[in-house]
From TrEMBL:
Residues 105-407 form the AAA+ ATPase domain. It is an enzyme of class 3 (hydrolase). It catalyses: ATP + H2O = ADP + phosphate + H(+). This is RuvB-like helicase. It is found in: Nucleus. It comes from Triparma columacea.
Amino acid sequence: MKVRLGSRGTTNGSFDISIYAVCTRQTILLDIVHRNIFILTAGALIEEVESTTKTARIAVHTHIKGLGLTPEGVALPIASGLVGQEKAREACGVVVDLIKSKKMAGRALLLAGAPGTGKTALALGISQELGGKVPFCPMVGSEVYSSEVKKTEVLMENFRRAIGLRIKENKEVYEGEVTELTPEETENPLGGYGRTVSHVLVGLKTTKGGKQLRLDPSIYEGLQKEGVTVGDVIYIEANSGAVKRVGRSDAYSTEFDLEAEEYVPIPKGDVHKKKEIVQDVTLHDLDASNAKPQGGGDVMSMMAAMGKNKKTEITEKLRTEINKVVNRYIDQGVAELVPGVLFVDEVHMLDIECFTFLNRALESSLSPIVVFATNRGVCNIRGTDVLAPHGVPVDLLDRMLIVRTMPYSVEEMVQIMSIRAAVEGITVSEGGLTALGSIGARTSLRYAVQMLTPSSIIAKTTGRDEVAEEDVGEIDELFFDSKASARLLKDAEGYLK
Ligand SMILES: Nc1ncnc2c1ncn2[C@@H]1O[C@H](COP(=O)(O)OP(=O)(O)OP(=O)(O)O)[C@@H](O)[C@H]1O
Ligand SMILES: [Mg+2]
């Protein structure tokens, strides 16, 4: 039975959702994109359940929004969620400029400092400053250890994920809103009872006029793959026949729809025209999509292969082939290289083989900027008995610029704490913040940040909305930080040894 269950405004009242659902006895849970979840029952009873998605998304680094630098590259004391650490932030700003100028490849930066001094936070700040168009590929040193894939293979893949390619092309396209979509069938020319699609009639409409196209059955497959229906805005590339669905025409924006649809205006100009199409891909996307060679060594057929999913292994030979094509297209000006950032956190987890590989990879012409981070001092290089600073061989260290992150002062801790409290939606009194700051100074920033939410729970149980000094004190007595716990263990008796 298909019934209309009703419509209701959402919390902000700015839109109205109507829901059609097939009724069964059970409760149907529909997750609607607009932040609200409705539970629908057979009796058409609608109950609003508060979504948890928004609160659950606050992660360790949620408050970091950038590097907080002035246009001249000077670090502001508190900006973009970052506090203090001025020198390291300015150094990261220089790296962002280097990446934006696109002239460099193969540079490496090492963020070194004690745990909890903001190395990972700074790397995320860099990625935020670069924006969505520049690839940023984060990985952790221990990711390279897999029983199936070679260590160097994992590294190479991540290197290539961090290099983007922007392909600009003036293409002849047919673009418009679909007004008609009729496949025409004929009898199978090879005999038998089946019928085949001989061609497909597609009507396209723009603000200027309309056109009816008679297309090859292979394009019909493309139309089906993109899920094109009447009322969608699409374009079809004239020479390759590739179909791209842009979105739903906004003339249909009032129709009831549970899916998140992107509504686009009806295209202007003629149906048949030249259009500049910009596509951003990474070298790894090209590798993966061409893992099974499809023939045709040009960028366009490489791009076209992206949608197909039958793959074989990515070999070194394939990568060399792709590099050749990419280099040719860069020389011709069709494509532009966008070197991004590969961020390797906990770099001391890599072993000597990986380090040797990195030396070579950094020197290749297609290399991103590599940012490493480590909290180790002098320790063994993994896989050897050799001691080295940061657990990184000196020859690789020699290729890096090293940025140090410094421990925070109490005032800086208090400021970070108040930023975190704001992000987590907790109000903390002055006294509470100072108490948290001094706990941070005694133990660590991370531990102090962890105490925010428990303190707010204690405050709530005593009927207050604001976290006061005594709540923090109470939590401090309930929990132990790592140092305190270690101290206790040292003189504890009765534990299993
Ligand atoms: N300068 C800062 N401003 C605001 N928040 C910060 C700052 N530095 C660190 N933080 C926050 O403190 C916490 C710990 O920092 P982070 O995880 O970056 O430390 P780390 O140096 O990577 O430590 P580790 O060596 O253990 O990996 C995170 O929640 C981070 O967002
Ligand atoms: Mg870290």
